[in-house]
Write a structure and sequence with these properties.
It is elongated, with a radius of gyration of 17 Å. It has 80 residues and is mostly helical.
Amino acid sequence: MPIFTFTRSHSSPPSGAKDSDDFFGQVCAMADPPLAVMTKSKDAGDDLAATSNAVEGAGYEVFYVDTQYERRAKSDAHFV
C-alpha cells in the first residue's frame, strides 16, 4: 500500500511531476541549496541566529526560528 496517494481535482493545475518519485525528487532538489547554506554555517560554528541570517542572506526566506530547541537542533545537526 503506498504511503502517499495523490488526487487532483480538475480545477487544480498539475504539479509538473511525472509520478510521486519525480515529485519528491523535485522537492529535495529545491531543498538542497538552502541546506548547503545551513551546513556551511553550522560547520563554521555559527549559532542558530547566524545560520538563519546566512540563509536569508543567500536569498531564502526564513519564516520562523524556534530558539527554544536550538540546543537539540544543533546537537542533531539539523536546523528544522
